[in-house]
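User: Teach me something about this protein's shape.
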Amino acid sequence: MSNEIRSIVAALALASVCGCMAHAATAQSAPQAPGSYASINGLHMYYEVHGAGRPLVLIHGGGSTAQTSFGALIPSLAKHHRVIAPEEQGHGHTADIDRPFSFEQMADDTASLLDQLGVQEADVFGFSNGGRVALVMAIRHPKLVRRLVIASSYSKHDAFAPEFWKGMEHASPDSMPATLRDAYAASSPKPDLARFVAKTKAMMLSTRDLAPEELRAIQAPTLLMIGDSDVVRPEHALELFRTLPHAQLAVFPGAAHGAYMGAAESAKRGSQQPEMAAAMIEEFLSAP
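Assistant: First, the predicted structure itself:
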């Protein structure tokens, strides 16, 4: 497997912050963050709120934080929305607890956070693994989800090339892109890479495919976004577009996993695609 694919695997699925995170980082407490915390299903769950308006929930990618996934878009999105950006179990400023990782649990945790914040309906924007969480939210909590934005995400295993799953089986803490490694080391209150990698691998390798009838039951209008050089196959995005009953599809040219939205692990200096993506998202969310 090439170094590029190995990095993408880590960016999508692991917070595999390699050994250079070191014991010194483990011994230090995370610096004060700009967000707040809520007690959610046993979690001390971190979340940020930016702007005002109709609620827009941002669900980060695997191994990421709210800012590494969405930092390039939040200033634009917060002009017209109350942006709520949680960090899921074991990610960013939210410490891990003694239970497995699962997309279903993350969806329920996010729904519980919204309930605690008094949000009865929200638009939900998920990137990568966060997109899978958003799809599960729309299935398990349909009344809560008004519109969906699903970026570089998937509903079943063959969304990825076979090499992805071979890499996942052998994933280790050595795979993490430096930007995500540094963000994890700076934010995690209780960093434990070996534990994180093991739990993430278990979640990914045991995840079931979402059934077509589950996807067809999603009534929320959905904007699907993907890069034509994404780790998720564009053919899968097209299949999702054909399956979801109210979907739109945007394919960004020359864009790797999350590059079109400025995700930290793949952002291109000087690219105008994040600005284009923000305008496209705003037009979709504000449509009648």
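Now, about its shape. Residues 103-116 form the longest helix (14 residues). The domain at 38-160+211-286 is CATH 3.40.50.1820 (Rossmann fold). If you'd like, I can walk through any region in more detail.
User: That's plenty for now, thanks!
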